Amino acid sequence: MKKFPVAIQVYSVRKEAESNLYGTLKKIKAMGYDGVEFAGRYKHTSEEIREMCKDIGLVPISAHVAYLEMMSDPEQVLGEYAAIGCKFVAVPYLTEEYRPGTDKFPEVIENIKKLGAIAKKLGMTLVYHNHDFEFTKLDGKYALDILYDEVSPDLLETELDVCWVNVGGEEPAAYLSKYAGRSHILHLKDFNGEKADDMYELIGIEKKAPKRPANFEFRPVGYGKQDFPKILAAAEKAGVEWVVVEQDQPSMGKTPMECAEMSREYLRSIGY
User: Fold this and answer.
1) Which domains does the chain carry?
2) The whole model's pTM is what?
């Protein structure tokens, strides 16, 4: 069994990071995390963040950077994360006007090719972090598959989020296996309940009237409905190099930091 290094998406503990990034990173390291994936720089320079990670002993493995932010000045914006030392940089989310089925989705695909080339030049790999809306079918094929068919693997790899793959209607381990060799970083996310109409309110982006089942919630890894031993076995076969814990909202009466620790303890208990 391969023992993956484990990172956490700092968005999971964003309020703590906004208040005290260095202190939060120290606590993350103390929990047993090996690396971090950023979602913003929390009012710090790239050089400051790089030094924080070096001092604490965390690998700044990746970063989520908004699509439109990247497109505003690709060389500069991507360069900021290369300066931190990130190996991967992710397109994390598409707002409604850029999603599959819109007139702008073909433009997104072409722009991702350009961003992938710039990331590569800067020594990083561009990845795409899916939600469930990419499992919309266009001419009988998932939009996510169309994206990966249209953009070559040397310009774009996957960052499959196993929660959203599941919510999108696919079995995470099987879908991950489909992209073996192109999946070097994997998002581990657990949940309980069923798909809802306001999923993106839950991740703090869109504001809609609550329509979700009362029992839906994101959970610490190992405390929901996902089969992580099966997912991690598939990850090993697929060539995954890093797994990243993410929990968009805390649950079970726990704080974000407590949820982060529960996730790490669960992964340790099954050999990771």
Assistant:
1) 6-269 (3.20.20.150)
2) 0.93
